[in-house]
Known about the structure:
The complex is a heterodimer of chains A (186) and B (275).
Chain A: H1 10-26, E1 31-34, E2 37-39, H2 43-53, H3 55-73, H4 79-92, H5 110-139, H6 143-175
Helix pairs in contact in A: 1-2, 1-3, 2-3, 2-4, 2-6, 3-4, 4-5, 5-6
Chain B: H1 14-17, H2 20-36, H3 40-56, H4 61-85, H5 89-94, E1 99-102, E2 107-109, H6 110-136, H7 139-148, H8 153-182, H9 194-203, H10 205-225, H11 244-266
Antiparallel strand pairs in B: 1-2
Helix pairs in contact in B: 2-6, 2-7, 2-11, 3-6, 4-6, 7-8, 8-10
Amino acid sequence: MKSSIWKWNTRTVVTIGIGAALYGATSWIGIPIAPDTQLRPAVALLAIFGALFGPVVGFVAGLIGHVINDFLTSGTVWWGWALGSGITAAFMGLIYLSKGFNPQDGEIRKGHVVRFLIYGLVGIFVSLAFSGLFDIYVMGEPNDKIIIQTVTAGLANTAVFVILGIPAVWAYAKRNRNNTNLTVER
Amino acid sequence: MSKAGNLFVEGDSLFHRMDGAVKLILLLTWTVSTFLFLDLRIFAVMLSAGIGMLLLSRIPFRRMALLFWVLMVFTLINSIFILIITPRFGSTLTGSNTPLIPVGYDTINAETLFYVLTLSAKYLTLLPVTMLFIFTTHPSRFAASLNKLGVHYKMAYAVSIAFRYIPDLTQEFKNILNAMQMRGMGISRGDGNLWRRMKNLSLVVVPLLQSSLQHIESVSNAMDLRGFGTGSKRTWYMGMPMSRSDKWMLLLCVLLLVAAILLKGFWAEKFWYPF
């Protein structure tokens, strides 16, 4: 059963906490693809938590998780990119609101996957545009360098989203479908 | 990693006794003040003040060394990258152009070199206060202080759970990794090429996610049983009343922020270049 995304019950609180811990503790896994830019498989978690629990949980878990990761591994919080993680998860979580989508009960259709893909791509674009502009205007970084970093990060995030994120949500929904493949006999 | 699941170091310095909320405000005002400028003089003053405070907290250097080197390597790579991609970016800020080092397709000029130095100083300025915050604040106390700052207690509790859950997660991660290793899917050097090892590492995430989803159920049931979320307010076991020194620190933070905004508004140029 899906509850309203604005209602905060105990489960929401715990989901955010554990999602953030999961994202924060696995973000160090990465392959450097451009200077100070990594391909992080953990981005798939944003897609999974967004799709399973909605945009609000996704946003907060992504933000807190990123801040924790920065605390533990870099000593400085990169606020622009932390908010970027949250924004990505929030957009990916929009799929949670679409009708008939409910991976907990195994309800997912091909149309949902297409929509999930579109939301995810828009989310990745918006979040990186935000992080890039934040770095240019607040941190004072040169434009050309930021463009290289955001474009590579965008490609990496898209790859992780398509290769790991979407199949993971699909597989999760399918796994939960087992108990619903009964037919009515007439 | 300590038992508390973060970098917290036990101690009894001025900053250990300080209220978590005040330290968080200090971190935020410090960050905002740094963000406002691109001026080496201001960063030099703030960096010295930050290092002074860090020394006062008497955190062992051994603990701080790792984060310090991580950030140093980060800024170094960042600087080299900027110099290679945009060797003459500094000119767009200063309007002058003093060629210095030829790099084939272009010439790195003195302005860009100075700009890179300023930018690195900007990042370094953020380090001491962030370290001060993470090394001297107990995570439970941190949640209590977030609540004190007006963040809803459910949100504060989510942050608290996140910190609390990381050591469990690390343990779980190791267990799964060991189990995978037994099946020949390890991540050490003998287990195959780099691609294979990366793939094995990312495969750990799936069972980790499964067990986490189960944890969500059990933890939220346990919290429901104890009546979490019934009241509109909550008290904290680790909460502390504000002391006099906390109030002084708060005043200092406000002064810092006002000074930074005034400096920015009336006096500072966008980028300080002395030559």
